[in-house]
Amino acid sequence: MRNYIIKRLLLIPLTLFGILLINFGIIQLAPGGPVEYMLAQYKGMNTGATGNINSGMPNLNEQKYQGAKGVPDDLVKELEKQFGFDKPVHERFIKMLNDYIHFDFGKSYYKDKTVLELIKERLPVSISLGLWSTLIIYLIAIPLGIKKARKDGEQFDVISSFIIFIGSAIPVFLFAVLLIVLFAGGTYFQFFPLKGLTSDGWENFTFWHKVSDYFWHITLPTICIVIGGIASLTMLTKNSFMDELSKQYVLTARAKGLSENRILYHHVFRNAMMIIIAGLPGLLIKILFTGSLLIEIIFSLNGMGLLGYEAIMTRDYPVVFGTLYIFALLGLILKLISDLTYSLVDPRINFEKI
Length: 354
What we know:
By secondary structure, the chain is mainly α. Helices cover 73% and strands 0% of the residues. It has 16 helices and no strands.
């Protein structure tokens, strides 16, 4: 196992390099950029001042940037220097790699903060949503999936499947809006706050008041994410257990007179949980960084998903690549943890040959 861990750790830098290289290339080919974004802002605020400038033949800047028409050349060159676009592409990429090795992600183009400061501010929000949602999903989906496997084809299985699929069919953002209308002061009741993870003056609350206020705010966003993620894990659990229950060793255990609970929890459980454990990193990454994006927008939660979305919309490349680097690194580490958990659950698995 030690050799396998070393190999996986050595592969992490190579994988990160490939991810950054591909995305850096895509960004260079994609239309728009921070220079054009700022040019659009400049022209929007100064249309009267720039409307009659450079009305003749287009210059090189106008050919390079669609928004450069009517903008002084000195301003365009100043913006290029400000965003580092006055250097060749390969120099910018090499500098980015060198900085990222030292976890220096640069400074946001627009927020007057370093990328690390922004990540430190936003990461706790995403972690809160991700950990609580994942915990609740597993606590509900695994027992429910096991019971559905034992009651396969019976009334409980049919009714629960109908409810689960109805819940999963409703888009997460629509369910969030519904909860706001019903319980957050939208039309009917105001049991929960509409936005944020804490109330004003939270720093001055007592410890238990802080805890209750935090859970009061996180309840509705967590419910939305749980509803969206519970169906797949429940059916995965059910199918995994049904597959194990049909195997020969289960028939042999029953022939020996072992109780169903002993067969299920002492023999079947460990084997059936393998595929569920394997899916944990993917589920956690999805909830942490992608699945909660709409929830963060609707409930005004300043998490990593919202940070990445804002950075893409404003072409804030340091934030885009910084968050991408963190996402990828966490994903690779969680995948390694998943493999280690595999071997703990079933010592027969040997990763040394991989």
